[in-house]
Structure prediction request, 96 residues.
Amino acid sequence: MPFGRQKFLILGMTLIFLGVQLRFVESFVLTPKASQFVETKMQNSGLMQGSRLDAYLPRTSIIAARKTVTPPRWIGLALISVGAVLVLHGVTLDKD
Prediction:
């Protein structure tokens, strides 16, 4: 299945909207179930010990079972930039 004009436009617009959302939102609070899932996956993989993920997924106590994810500000701009390039590429492709 070829990756045509419509797929470039859809993917680009999705990345632009996701990037804008990440620029407007400062942090995300996960549900207790999602927090537990992230905690078990990060402990099993060994990524939580002394890595940079500690800054984005801080450890919480038993009382506060929800994790807060704070994405870096540059991720939103990066997604908007890549999305804009994909949209422009999709616009310049020939119509199928």
